[in-house]
């Protein structure tokens, strides 16, 4: 048994070490230059693709892009507590739920109209609607295997990160022009910007109250990752069976739910909780670095403008839905 574990570790080490090293480099650049760490990890990985061509690195990079990703998503649950979800009220919850579900369905419908795969629309719609790059990675983990899966995931991560950064700059200005209160501004920013980091940056650029509200609302959207991944796993199970991929109900989803319950009902010391939240972040960075290492830039250049327009429309749809909902019910 020990010899098998040792042999497996020896096989995984070269590729895993490469992915982790790229993750550390991306984290350093993100901290020192203020740009999205996920995007740095993806671009560095793509630049170092030649390392994946070495057969010794393949098992470890594949492990990082799959298993490490799932552990990272599971630990995301430590960011959320059930009391926080209840505190925002059922009207806000209903508005967030409608925004998430409608954006995914609009993405699927538009992708078919544009001649793209509906699963690509579901992936980009989920990334836009829930929590950006983290959602793209989690949803990709339960989609059927196929020749375009990694290409679609890479594009979704690049697109959602770029749009989220743009929204972080534009949406606070828009909120100010609409004369939102700090609470309303926080609701708008938390309900529309894709990535958690950009939500925090946009919210606290207005005020501490707006930042707190934006962060809370954003975490509510992150909580929708559980039911959405569950539905994706069931909806695409038949396609997975047909394509040879064994997509079953993902165990990391149960891990995510368990972490939410743990964070809600067990007093976890802040230092320990902070450690695992940071571990989750770094696991996701390592996973996206691995996906970058496995990518083929030539294939990505063939994507064209249709996916770009799709993600822009999904982003605009979510913003309009939240703004109209705020006017109607809040």
Q: What is the structure about, briefly put?
A:
This protein has helices at residues 2-33, 37-47, 58-75, 82-87, 90-113, 118-129, 133-140, 149-177, 182-192, 196-206, 208-223, 225-235, 237-243, 251-265, 270-293, 297-300, 306-329. The chain is mainly alpha-helical.
Which SSEs are present, and which pair or pack?
Elements: H1 2-33, H2 37-47, H3 58-75, H4 82-87, H5 90-113, H6 118-129, H7 133-140, H8 149-177, H9 182-192, H10 196-206, H11 208-223, H12 225-235, H13 237-243, H14 251-265, H15 270-293, H16 297-300, H17 306-329
Helix pairs in contact: 1-2, 1-3, 1-15, 2-15, 3-14, 3-15, 5-6, 5-17, 6-7, 6-8, 6-17, 7-8, 8-9, 8-10, 8-17, 9-10, 9-11, 9-17, 10-11
Description:
The protein is mainly α. Helices cover 80% and strands 0% of the residues. Helix 5 packs antiparallel against helix 17. It is globular, with a radius of gyration of 19 Å. The chain starts with a helix and ends with a helix. Mean pLDDT is 84; it is low at 240-248.
Features:
globular
What string gives the helices and strands in order?
Answer: HHHHHHHHHHHHHHHHH
Give unreliable regions as ranges.
240-248
β-strand number: 0
| Relative strand content | under 5%
Radius of gyration equals 19 Å
Mean pLDDT comes to 84
The level of helicity is: over 70%
Number of helical stretches of at least 4 residues: 17
Q: Looking at the structure, what is the overall shape?
A: globular
Main sheet summary: none
Structural class: mainly alpha
**Distance linking N and C termini:** 60 Å
